[in-house]
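Help needed: design a sequence for this.
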């Protein structure tokens, strides 16, 4: 598919303007950017990053690489490299189609291939092996050139020492931060109807920061503060950044975990397959996800508690609890929202 040729539909979020990492080399530049990031993360819950260091050609190459685990690997080999989410609470390897329940007996039609930033942790399908140096370079770029600068801005936004969150996200520290490639396959009319055109239910990501490489098939929506789902607009070679549960917990609710979902694209885009490239960041496994009380900002605005501080899960406990339950557990319906308890914390799913 020729990425970049499709146009998104007209219903797009217009309020968030992309910004540049460029000026962030000086303390003044970072202070300015921190204001923008804080504004985005405490209101809409996402922002774009442009000028992040990858050229359009490098980004295109990553999407070509992203397609390989889906298009060039046989079903049998995919099975051999399937992840064991329910048992290990870890997404490494394939998340094959039909694994999650969406709604009314309908299961998902999307595949992931998840690769830890330490690409040697597991084996990979034969055609993926020669691509591992490139995938590792991609992980490192995301971690050091995108994630760490964002984490510095988020620390400044809480008036904490700049390296506070960076120190929780060591590239070589034990933890799960990983690259995800993802492919959505077409669904039947019946499946579309029974799920109200929802491909991936409204959810929050469980890590700290998600980096999504913007791609042209519109389908991602964010639940805006006014309670309406809004399309996320495609911007060529931009990154869409959102916070997840772990960042919400660490920031005492100040930075909101963004509620987002994936729905059937608008009619003019329904014949395209949708390919995704992501970097899912988590803090190091041993970090306790309790609010950073030392933040002067939190001392002023107060903390929204999800659990008592001494009961706060570690990153490892939280990611394992959420991963093993996701799409497999019995959810309790409460109107439009479905709920479950993970590690004593209420988790919501939205239609
Ligand atoms: O495909 C997308 O745009 C979003 C996927 C997503 O939300 C996820 O994998 O957590
Ligand atoms: Fe997500």
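Sure. Designed sequence:
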């Amino acid at each position: 598919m020729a990425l970049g040729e499709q146009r998104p539909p007209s219903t797009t979020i217009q309020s968030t303007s992309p910004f540049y990492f460029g000026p962030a080399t000086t303390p003044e530049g970072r202070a300015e950017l921190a204001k923008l990031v804080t504004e985005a993360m405490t209101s809409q819950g996402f922002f774009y990053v442009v000028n992040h260091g990858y050229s359009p050609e490098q980004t295109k190459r990553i999407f070509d690489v992203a397609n390989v685990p889906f298009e060039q690997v046989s079903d049998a080999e995919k099975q051999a490299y399937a992840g064991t989410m329910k048992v290990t609470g870890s997404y490494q390897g394939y998340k094959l189609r039909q694994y999650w329940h969406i709604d009314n007996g309908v299961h998902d039609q999307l595949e992931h291939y998840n690769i830890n930033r330490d690409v040697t942790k597991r084996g990979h399908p034969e055609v993926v092996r020669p691509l591992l140096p490139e995938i590792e370079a991609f992980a490192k770029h995301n971690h050091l050139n995108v994630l760490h600068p964002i984490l510095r801005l988020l620390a400044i936004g809480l008036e904490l020492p700049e390296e506070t969150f960076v120190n929780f996200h060591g590239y070589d520290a034990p933890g799960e931060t990983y690259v995800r490639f993802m492919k959505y396959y077409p669904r039947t009319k019946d499946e579309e109807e029974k799920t109200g055109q929802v491909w991936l239910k409204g959810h929050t990501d469980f890590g700290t920061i998600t980096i999504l490489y913007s791609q042209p098939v519109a389908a991602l929506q964010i639940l805006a503060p006014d309670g309406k789902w809004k399309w996320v607009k495609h911007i060529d070679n931009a990154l869409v950044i959102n916070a997840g549960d772990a960042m919400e917990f660490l920031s005492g609710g100040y930075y909101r975990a963004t509620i987002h979902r994936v729905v059937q694209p608008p009619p003019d885009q329904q014949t395209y397959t949708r390919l995704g490239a992501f970097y899912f960041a988590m803090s190091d496994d041993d970090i306790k996800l309790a609010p950073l009380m030392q933040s002067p900002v939190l001392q002023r605005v107060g903390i929204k508690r999800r659990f008592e501080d001494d009961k706060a899960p570690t990153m490892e406990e939280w990611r394992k609890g959420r991963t093993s339950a996701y799409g497999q557990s019995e959810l309790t319906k409460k109107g439009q929202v479905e709920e479950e308890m993970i590690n004593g914390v209420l988790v919501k799913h939205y239609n």
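Confidence is low (pLDDT under 50) at residues 1-16.
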